[in-house]
Write a structure and sequence with these properties.
disordered C terminus; mainly alpha; 2 strands; globular; single chain; 7 helices; two-stranded antiparallel sheet; 213 residues
Length: 213
């Protein structure tokens, strides 16, 4: 089962990842002239992490479509942003749990997910062994929701991967190490007077299991 330390570490990672998203989605009149709320505490990350875990829970119970349909509002609520005004007064943002309540909600949902995985029908991967594929599905859906909010495709994919990595860490899963590129055969020796150009490797979009905590 996820430990309190694992929940706190995952929430911290999500708070850091979602900070840039909050700035991207904050319009000039988002706060109505009031000072910006401080964002980046563990409770903020717990709210965002719980949104993603709810998607994993929905995928396990065949309710992923309903989760996706409400994802725009849930992301804005987790970021403590006002809902967009479509006519008339905007409804108030959802009230988020505070302090350890948020982290407790993360742990409780993670335990529910493990329980649901252990009860999978025969023939399906049971326990944490079934998580990588399901995390990939939720990651792709989450990235699609971010694109729907106007986040560029590359940033959406990177943020969704960060969310999946944080969620997976609750179950002892970690992103695989990036492989080192092999040198091409018979490559000419580099000119010592000229620096070699940097090579950027794409981020892996899947997770591998590293063992239960």
């Amino acid at each position: 089962m996820p430990t309190d330390h694992a929940c706190r570490a995952a929430a911290d990672a999500v708070a850091h990842a979602l900070g840039a998203l909050r700035e991207h989605l904050s319009g000039p009149g988002e706060h109505g002239g009031a000072p910006r709320l401080r964002y980046g505490e563990p409770v903020d990350g717990a709210a965002g992490l719980l949104v993603f875990l709810d998607g994993l829970h929905a995928e396990l119970h065949g309710a992923l479509t309903g989760w996706y349909c409400a994802l725009d509002h849930r992301i804005r609520d987790a970021l403590r942003l006002l809902p967009p005004v479509t006519g008339g007064a905007a409804p108030p943002a959802a009230r988020l749990p505070s302090g350890w309540d948020g982290l407790g909600g993360v742990r409780y949902r993670a335990e529910e997910i493990l329980t649901a995985l252990s009860a999978r029908p025969r023939g399906e991967a049971a326990g944490a062994a079934g998580l990588p594929r399901r995390l990939e599905v939720v990651e792709d859906v989450f990235a699609g929701a971010l694109r729907r909010l106007g986040v560029p495709a590359r940033e959406s994919a990177g943020l969704a991967a960060d969310m999946a990595a944080a969620a997976g860490s609750l179950f002892g899963m970690h992103p695989p190490n990036r492989p080192r590129a092999a040198a091409p055969p018979h490559a000419p020796a580099p000119d010592r007077h000229h620096a070699m150009p940097a090579v950027a490797f794409p981020q892996l979009g899947y997770l591998s299991q590293g063992g239960m905590p």
